[in-house]
Specification:
Shape: globular
Largest sheet: 2 strands, antiparallel
Number of domains: 1
Order of helices and strands: HEHHHHHHHEHHHHHHHHH
Distance between the termini: 34 Å
Number of strands: 2
Strand order of the largest sheet: 1-2
CATH topology: Growth Hormone, Chain: A
Strand content: under 5%
């Protein structure tokens, strides 16, 4: 029988079928921009809309509550979730470009956050199923593009906001989600199974995680989502407030953090081919704890930039290593989605707590104790993973 005829008779593998790699890369890059967009523009919004730090925290919370619910909404065919997520992101960001005021901003950011959360969750699960060997390394490569998008956000804000304002750039950004939606749907890949599969591995079953493992992984991403978003959402404001720089200078800290996360994802992808994912996770958290203390206590803009650069490198392995460990257990899509969604819930809660603390103490520096506490909590949890015997077996 000709090979082409044989392929036509093979059943479609819905676990791996979805957008081709180029559209996955574009989609995850756009979700990186969409995740990070509030941090660089928050000082501009606060000035234009005359809102406090606590009210700025409401914007962050609205966006990431949407992301949390979007992550929970992943069901059935992953390619449909990816399409729906891109379309919701388009609608939400297009509407946000016309928003004026806190209420409209919260509503439109909720919709865009829902779309971004839905897309990120489905994309990560899809990659985790396509690449059954070196899963952590594959996820690191995917998240390189996510971090690249987040890094570009700071550069683009510094370049475009003074000249064009928010409306035009955000509307163009929304249109790119529409392009990614249709490109990914019309040009799919991996119809018949995962990359790296040997004979008999083409359709690995998904199995239920034990409750302890499910709670453990969800808690890790809940706290990490809060940690990362506390930093990326507030660093620009922190820099501007304490260093009295202009907007371009104020973006340097968050750009360096995202840039280091981007480079670190490439380096951690290579490192996790030789060292265990757990080792990469713990070493990164130990370094992150030290660097966060340095950021809180420094009074120098130069050292703040250095510490942000090193902090990005140290945080880079955490998400891909943690999600790689999870996906090797082959959880059901619903379980993986709830675990990913927990990251969005943490990102909604803890940055809002920072805004609340800053408003009521009069010091954003004091509020930086929130991410410092989170990294210590994650480090402690990394030494108490679910017992090996609790791993699900076929």
């Amino acid at each position: 029988m000709p090979s082409g005829t044989h392929e036509q008779t093979r059943p479609l593998d819905n676990n791996t079928f979805g957008p081709a790699s180029v559209w996955l890369g574009l989609g995850i890059l756009l979700t990186g921009l969409g995740t990070a967009i509030l941090g660089p523009i928050l000082p501009t919004l606060a000035h234009n809309w005359h809102i406090t730090d606590q009210q700025s925290g409401h914007l962050i919370a609205a966006k990431f509550i949407g992301a949390f619910l979007g992550g929970l909404s992943v069901r059935g065919l992953l390619r449909r979730s990816i399409l729906a997520g891109a379309l919701c992101s388009f609608v939400g960001f297009a509407a946000f470009s016309f928003a004026h005021g806190l209420a409209a901003g919260m509503a439109t950011l909720f919709v865009s956050g829902y779309g971004v959360g839905l897309s990120i969750t489905a994309l990560n699960i899809l990659i985790g199923r396509r690449y059954i060997t070196h899963t952590g390394a594959a996820l690191s490569t995917l998240n390189f593009f996510w971090s690249l998008g987040a890094t570009l956000c700071g550069f683009l804000a510094a370049l475009l906001l003074p000249r064009y304002g928010l409306h035009g750039p955000v509307l163009i950004f929304a249109a790119l989600f529409l392009l990614a939606a249709f490109g990914g749907w019309l040009l799919p890949s991996h119809r018949f199974g995962p990359t790296g599969a040997t004979k008999g591995q083409e359709s690995l079953p998904t199995i239920a995680l034990p409750r302890l493992a499910h709670i453990h992984f969800a808690a890790l991403l809940f706290f990490y989502g809060g940690l990362e978003t506390c930093l990326t959402a507030w660093l620009t404001t922190y820099s501007l407030r304490y260093e009295e720089t202009q907007l371009l200078g104020g973006q340097s800290a968050v750009v360096l953090l995202w840039g280091a996360l981007t480079i670190g994802r490439v380096l951690s992808s290579a490192a996790m081919r030789f060292f265990s994912e757990s080792a990469a996770q713990r070493v990164g958290l130990i370094l992150s704890s030290t660097l966060l203390t340095a950021i809180i206590t420094t009074r120098s803009s130069g050292w703040l930039s250095v510490y942000c650069l090193l902090l990005g490198l140290s945080l880079a392995p955490f998400f891909p290593s943690t999600f790689g460990i999870l996906m090797r257990r082959r959880p059901h899509s619903q379980q993986a989605a709830t675990i990913m969604a927990a990251s969005g819930l943490g990102a909604a809660i803890f940055p809002w707590v920072m805004g609340y603390v800053s408003t009521h103490t009069g010091s954003l520096r004091i509020a930086m104790a929130v991410p410092a506490a989170l990294v210590l909590l994650l480090l402690a949890m990394s030494f108490f993973p679910p017992d090996a015997e609790n791993k699900a077996t076929v």
